[in-house]
Amino acid sequence: MRDPWLDNARFFLIALVVFGHELEPLLRTHSLLAGCYRFIYLFHMPAFAMLSGAVASTDLNSTLLRKIVFRLLLPYLLFQGLYAWISQAGVWPDDGPDGIATPYWLLWYLPSLACWRLLLPLFARLRCRLPLAVGVALAAGWAGDLGHYLSLSRTLVFFPFFLIGWQRLPDWCRADARMPARPLAVALLLALAALALDRRLDPRWLYGSASYAALHVSALHGSIQRLLLMAAATLAALAVFRLTPRRAFAWSRLGRGSLAAYLLHGFAIKLAIGAGAFALIRDWPTPVLLAMLGTLALTVTATLCSPLINRLAAPLTQPRWLERALWRPAD
To answer: Which 3 state secondary structure label does DSSP give 90?
Structure first.
């Protein structure tokens, strides 16, 4: 039986992903939108990593390997190729993927999730696994050559959140769990939103892909700042989870289609940028932009999460046809 809380959280977080990507073309002209963007990026991918960890298995067997290959790595390759092909269109605003081993834009999550699921059986057997994972995440910033290649930096930086989700999230999200009270969760999010409004916070700190040298800080300074931001992201994610409804709504089932929405919305965003849609609204008042983009994000997310779109996109997002063609069941 599916947990409606999990579906509600997935739908809310994927809507934030879409909203954040809508804000990107407008950051230089609207400081409030830039603050909203930093606030979203503070916690939305850590929260997604926690949710992914909460449903992960520690059994390292052929079933896990099959799921990793056919549900994560093959969709990554298919969409990497699709983005490379469509980026040749004249309306596309950038050069597209930079080779097969450098995940394009939002595709980094698929190879990172594959690595997390492979690392989990090992870390589940370790003592002090969370401090060790946090130490590795901090040390990732010392290396200047990780960057976006194979999403190695993000894999290491966000793995502690995946581990937290596997280790603690199912217990925290029980109806009788000792989660923060709703007023406390709201107050915590408001405080962190105020922090995100500080223009001195470089959003590159929140991506998990930049080294400390690239961020122009020392290894010690960078490690301390990353540790503080990881703590803030954890608290923000838990506050959001506390505020997520536990009962089912008519729209709750849409959360089941979050992968299709994650992979497909990038085409709409990039094509809108290339067509000049964001340039047309750049000078609109900030409150109007917030309302319009928020409504649009919910609409796009609901559409792409719908059962119809998921069925149409299934040959790419869940390529069972390739699985049937390539996988040989055990004798």
So the answer is: coil
Which amino acid type is present at position 176? D
Please tell me the total count of domains within the chain. 1
Place of tokens 């122009």: 216
Q: State the CB neighbour count (10 A cutoff) for residue 215.
A: 15
- Calpha distance 158→13 (Å, rounded): 16
pLDDT tens digits along 100-120: 889 999 999 999 999 999 999
Say how many C-beta atoms besides its own lie within 10 A of residue 323's C-beta.
15
- Between CA 184 and CA 187 the distance in angstroms is 5
Distances (CA, A) of 117 to 3, 91, 153, 317: 21, 37, 16, 18
Look-up of token digits 């990780």: 146
- pLDDT tens-digit map of 171-218: 766 554 555 678 888 999 999 999 888 888 899 999 999 999 999 999
Asked, for residue 331, whether it belongs to a domain, the answer is no
In a domain, 20, yes or no: yes
- Amino acid letter, 107: L
Domain that holds residue 163: 4-326
Tokens standing for residue 125 = 């057997």
Closest CA to 11 of 243, 318, 295, 259: 259
Cα distances (angstroms) measured from residue 146 to each of 140, 210, 269: 8, 8, 27
- 268 class by beta-carbon count within 10 Å (0-12 exposed, 13-18 middle, 19+ buried): middle
